[in-house]
Design a protein that fits this description.
Keywords: Gluconate utilization, NADP, Oxidoreductase, Pentose shunt. The protein has about 475 residues and is α/β, with parallel strands linked by helices. It contains 20 helices and twelve strands. It binds NADPH dihydro-nicotinamide-adenine-dinucleotide phosphate (NDP).
């Protein structure tokens, strides 16, 4: 019996993906650097389906049907290269090497190019949904060649989450496209989590609503347009009481948010692409600031607050809900806009409707909203920005008064809402006829002769600031 697929790297993610594959009827060859993990998996879950136990990569390769599919699920970074280096000499042209870990898309591009020279397919696959998703159905974002997807796609689609009967898995695009889209997914996730945190802080510090009560509010919100996995689990977290102290769980947790790096990667990449993902960036920075324990301690002692004592607006809870919705929408708009920029840069044909659709199940940012986003990009006329899709233009217009009230109240009360406020600034930046950029262009021309355009003439110009301030055509400056 040959295996349909081999999995090497059987820590929690690899083991769960292998079990998911086996439960879906595929024969899975198992391998791990140290054989203990392989045996532990077989001892505990060997009855999940058909497994083939192997001890070496050679045995793993020998046990596979052709073209071989080898899924690597080891620690991201150097270990992936180490495993690839050991595997490649054992494979034949046409075989498919799959990296389903959290690799950086540039690494994936490099690996894909290197393996292509040996006539091997390398497929970087973004997998979202954590341990639970890997076992029961993740959202899957495969890159690599279309040819490799023809051989691999049916397996991945079978094990993915399903929404309305449709797999949350589709070919994303060549080389690193899958890992890129997964990275941006994580960036949106950061912003999505931060806006929920900001809503909590506003309701607590602004309106004095205790976590237990907020848990009910969040559960209620989860029945409407905000319905999502993150709102659902936030209701659970807020309702949880610490057994030791009897206090709300959120009051005994240290308020320093950790991060593993994919949000940071998103922002670095966005900066390189010139893509304004301000909400995502603010959410990464907010985590960084939360972790600056020493400075925060000094800040509490040294920095004035001077809050302005204002009454929170009537219907504040509903205002916060609407502001949360609008800010969340902006985060998705920014993330999807970044995908558009990346598609141009890397020559990927990213289908935003399919991407939004495969985020509807299995992954952390799964949300009702994604159905509407899918529809927006499935329309014949694709919006240049998600916010321009008629349904969302209307929705934001409806939320705008509440959004402005909430941000204004937060500023007056000294409650930091970096994503609520930066998202609003992004929105206003998009819609304003004139931006402060004209002043910046003037400054740049004065100190660096960087030139500027005029609203009333074609071409580029430079003012002779140090002379008689007359204007010349910029070609004259060179
Ligand atoms: P780990 O990231 O903890 O990696 C452990 C595995 O890597 C073990 O099987 C280990 O083998 C193997 N390994 C480490 N170094 C080497 C090496 N040099 N050569 C061969 N094998 C090596 O495992 P996880 O299951 O937590 O994660 C796997 C991947 O999935 C990572 O990229 C991670 O970022 C990603 N991930 C994704 C999540 C998601 O939601 N999509 C969630 C969690 C992780 P040994 O047992 O011999 O030490």
């Amino acid at each position: 019996m040959s295996a349909h697929i081999g999995v090497t790297g059987l820590a929690v993610m690899g083991a769960n993906l292998a079990r998911n594959l086996a439960r879906n009827g595929f024969t899975v060859a198992l391998h791990n650097r140290s054989v203990e993990k392989t045996d532990a998996l077989l001892a505990k879950h060997g009855t999940d389906g058909d497994f083939i136990r192997t001890e070496t990569l050679q045995e793993l390769v020998d046990s596979l049907e052709k073209p071989r599919r080898v899924l690597i699920m080891v620690k991201a970074g150097k270990p992936v290269d180490a495993v690839i280096d050991q595997l490649v000499p054992l494979l034949e042209p046409g075989d498919i090497v799959i990296d389903a870990g959290n690799s950086h898309y540039e690494d994936t591009r490099r690996r894909e190019a290197a393996l292509a020279e040996k006539d091997l397919h390398f497929v970087g696959v973004g997998v979202s949904g954590g341990e639970e998703g890997a076992l029961n159905g993740p959202s899957i974002m495969p890159g690599g060649s279309k040819e490799s997807y023809d051989a691999l796609g049916p397996l991945l689609e079978k094990i993915s989450a399903k929404v309305d009967g449709k797999p949350c898995c589709a070919w994303i695009g060549t080389d690193g496209a899958g890992h890129f889209v997964k990275m941006v997914h994580n960036g949106i996730e950061y912003a999505d989590m931060q806006v929920i945190g900001e809503a909590f802080d506003l309701l607590r510090s602004g309106a004095g609503i205790e976590p237990a009560e907020q848990s009910k509010i969040f559960a209620e919100w989860n029945k409407g347009e905000l319905a999502s996995f993150l709102i659902e689990i936030s209701a659970e977290v807020l309702g949880h009481v610490d057994a030791k102290t009897g206090k709300p769980f959120v009051d005994v947790v240290v308020d320093a948010a950790g991060q593993k790096g994919t949000g940071r990667w998103t922002v670095i990449s966005a900066l390189e692409l010139g893509s304004p993902v301000s909400g995502i960036a603010e959410s990464v920075f907010a985590r960084a600031l939360s972790s600056q324990a020493e400075q925060r301690k000094l800040g509490q002692e040294l920095l004035a607050g001077e809050e302005i004592a204002v009454e929170v607006p009537e219907n504040f809870v509903e205002d916060v809900r609407q502001a949360l919705y609008a800010s969340k929408l902006v985060s998705y708009a920014q993330g999807l806009d970044m995908l558009t920029s990346a598609a141009k840069e890397y020559g990927w044909d990213l289908k935003l409707d399919e991407i939004a659709s495969l985020w509807r199940g299995g992954c952390i940012i799964r949300a009702e909203l994604l159905k509407e986003i899918t529809n927006a990009y499935a329309a014949e006329e694709k919006p240049a920005n998600l916010l321009f899709a008629p349904a969302f233009t209307k929705a934001i217009a409806g939320a705008l008064p509440a959004w402005r009230r909430v941000v204004a109240t937060a500023v007056q009360l000294g409650i930091p809402v970096p994503v609520f406020s930066s998202s609003l600034a992004y929105y206003d930046g998009l819609r304003r006829k004139r931006l402060a950029a004209a002043v910046i262009q003037g400054q740049r021309d004065l100190f660096g002769a960087h030139t500027y355009g005029r609203v009333d003439a074609e071409g580029t110009f430079h003012t002779l600031w140090g002379e008689d301030k007359s204007e010349i055509s910029a070609v004259d400056t060179h």
